[in-house]
Amino acid sequence: MTDLQLQQTPPNDDPGSGTESLQTSRCDPVAQSQAAYATLLFNRYRASLHRYLARFVPADEADELVQETYFRLLRHGETVQLEALARAFLFRTATNLVRDHHRRKQVRRSDLHVPLDDHDPGEEHLGPEEQLLGRQLLDIVEETIAGMPAETRSVFLMSRFRDMSYPEIAHALNLSARTVTRKMAEAMEMLGTAVGGIP
Amino acid sequence: MRRWWFNRGVAAAEWFARIRSGSFDLGANTRWQSWLKRDSSNSASFERMETAWESAGLIGERPAIQGLLREVDRLVARSSAPRISRNWRMYPVAIGLAAILIITTSAYLQWVSQATSTSYVTAIGEQRVVMLEDQSSVSLNTATSIRVVYSRRSRSVEMLAGEAVFSVVHDEARPFSVRALAGSSTAVGTQYAVRIANPDSIVVSVLEGVVAVKADSTPGPAARVLAGQAVSYEKSGAVSPVRPADLEQIRAWQEQRLVFTDVPLRDAVAEFNRYLRTPVVLAGADIANRRISGVYRIGHEDAFLNALQQLYQVQVIRGEGQILLQPAP
């Protein structure tokens, strides 16, 4: 019977002033319904996020990063209206966490500067599993990007690393917005196929 | 290019590309989700897109990618540099003036037409207060759905269901207007409540200031409704005379209270049911016509039902999907 989602607002001292009551009860209900939405999204994508994170970190640490992703979503504040964008936010957050995680590991294990995205043989000081985790995947992604047709690659790189919108890319490459969408899909298809071949 | 539609991996890539296009809307979002759910291999191939995209983000510092990015940056720099042909240089003033005219006109048109649209929805039993970008606020009651569209020239809200109180910040240049059914209520700065009382009838109650209420199909000037007054309009276009507003009811729900003063149980239960997922149902006209009074907390239906049981000789039978009230034996 008590599955209602009513928030408890503190009793109002001045019930005569409607504006006051709006101001005082402003934060809680919004935060609450956002938290409920965040939880819903999180439960829906928990497994996907774990699968993704487990490519780069050991399973138990992936658990922790999945939790941390959820906390970041809660802290994000504004409600993401479209689920597709919310999902993209979750994955982006997870990726940032992977990056931080590897940086921390490197600092802890050695004073040698060995970035995750480097082929430097100095990474021997990492644990054996960690050396392998994700390495092959990242190599394949790099090769695939390098092997894309020039225009397709430019579209992808501008979107991925320069945060350019499709209209901005269209302007820079003198293409139509539709063509940019198509080239982007082409790039993603190549990457998806390459990634699909890796266990 | 036809082959695009025949391969699952391609469909996933298309969806992924479209989501980032900036023109992905609610309808597309719904179609994307049903595509995902249609087949587990659809969601697997979409997950591959995410893995690929995010993995790429991890290798941005690799020398090979850095090299490719330098090429891309050159392309961007070249496209944004001004290009003026020789012949046109003969008329710099004319070009300058034309450019200024074009830029200011298009900037103005863009500025005027810029509109943001946001939807807010509450579930049954849920209430929420949202702050709009101009610091106006909306207090949404149970099962309410509104869409807010702000542009440089107007602030408009479309109300699809439920009840809400609008506290509007004064802005002479941008009137604030709530559309519900076939009519609208407009204010410059004030506080007022709009309720879709039944599928065909809207009640507008004014707490502060003045609101102009107009049904689309009724000719003549809008009804001016002052603080403490209310007016109703029907889908058919009929507008009621101005009458005193039931401000107590509006203040009460904002404080999670329901106030009944000598009303038929039928009306009290209908009001309470707005907040309940499992509705209360009355058995028989006799019980429905009994009159009750009292103040109850929204969401605390047990207290309401206990009071009925003890004070009004009503028996409560909790069943699957409903709560039945019948005369006590």
Count of individual domains of chain A:
2
Whole-number count of domains of chain B:
3
Class per helix and strand makeup of chain B:
alpha+beta
**Which chain pair has the greatest contact?**
A-B, 85 and 83 residues
Q: Which bin fits the share of residues in helices of chain B?
A: 25-40%
Q: Hey, roughly how much beta strand do the residues of chain A contain? A: under 5%
**Spatial strand order of the main sheet of chain B:** 1-4-5-7-8-11-12
Examine the coordinates and then state which fold CATH places here, giving the name of the CATH topology of the largest domain in chain B: Jelly Rolls
Low-confidence stretches of chain B: 1-6, 82-90
Q: Give the overall average pLDDT of chain B.
A: 82
Poorly predicted regions of chain A: 1-27, 111-115, 117-131
Overview features:
heterodimer; A: 199 residues; mainly alpha; Rna Polymerase Sigma Factor, Chain: A; Arc Repressor Mutant, subunit A; 2 domains; 9 helices; disordered N terminus; B: 329 residues; alpha+beta; Jelly Rolls; Phage tail protein beta-alpha-beta fold; seven-stranded mixed β-sheet; seven-stranded antiparallel β-sheet; extended
Describe the structure.
- Chain A has helices at residues 18-24, 27-53, 59-75, 83-109, 128-132, 135-146, 150-161, 166-173, 177-196.
- Chain A has 199 residues and is mainly alpha-helical.
- Chain A folds into two domains: 27-118, Rna Polymerase Sigma Factor, Chain: A, CATH 1.10.1740; 134-199, Winged helix-like DNA-binding domain superfamily/Winged helix DNA-binding domain (Arc Repressor Mutant, subunit A), CATH 1.10.10.10.
- The termini of chain A are far apart.
- The model of chain A is unreliable at 1-27, 111-115 and 117-131 (pLDDT under 50).
- Chain B has three domains: 2-64; 115-247, Sandwich (Jelly Rolls), CATH 2.60.120.1440; 256-327, Phage tail protein beta-alpha-beta fold, CATH 3.55.50.
- In chain B, 36% of the residues lie in helices and 33% in strands.
- Chain B has helices spanning 8-19, 26-38, 40-58, 63-80, 92-113, 247-254, 265-273, 285-289, 301-311, and strands at residues 115-121, 128-131, 137-140, 145-151, 155-161, 163-167, 176-180, 183-187, 191-198, 201-208, 210-215, 223-226, 229-234, 243-244, 257-264, 280-282, 291-297, 314-319, 322-327.
- In chain B, the strands form four sheets. In chain B, strands 1-4-5-7-8-11-12 form a seven-stranded mixed β-sheet, with no helix packed on it. Chain B has a seven-stranded antiparallel β-sheet with strand order 2-3-6-9-10-13-14, with helices on one face.
- In chain B, strand 4 and strand 5 form a beta hairpin.
- In chain B, helix 1 (8-19) crosses helix 3 (40-58) and helix 2 (26-38) packs across helix 3.
- The longest helix of chain B has 22 residues, at 92-113.
- The relative contact order of chain B is 0.06.
- At the A-B interface, helix 1, helix 2, helix 4, helix 6 and helix 7 of A face helix 1, helix 2, helix 3, helix 4 and strand 2 of B.
